[in-house]
Hints:
The protein has three helices and no strands.
Amino acid sequence: MTEHQYLRASIIDRFELEYRAIAQLFQPLIAQARLRGDELEVILLKAKQEFLLNHALLIRIRQEEIIYWLEQDTELRKLGTSYAESCEIALWV
């Protein structure tokens, strides 16, 4: 397993833990609001939950994007070039 694969696995694990934690936090609150018949509270809690889940997903996507660029940088360094140099070469070809 490369260090980039390890980082990806770590990000996925962290995201899954955060996803479960958010779901476990809100499910009892939503259930209680339903039992009280407070539909507005149910809607608000679901919206808050959805916001937090989307935020966690955006963070995961951004972290995976950073790892992708680190991996590309590593590959270019192995080839003895850089991103800027490879773009410059592509412009002249």
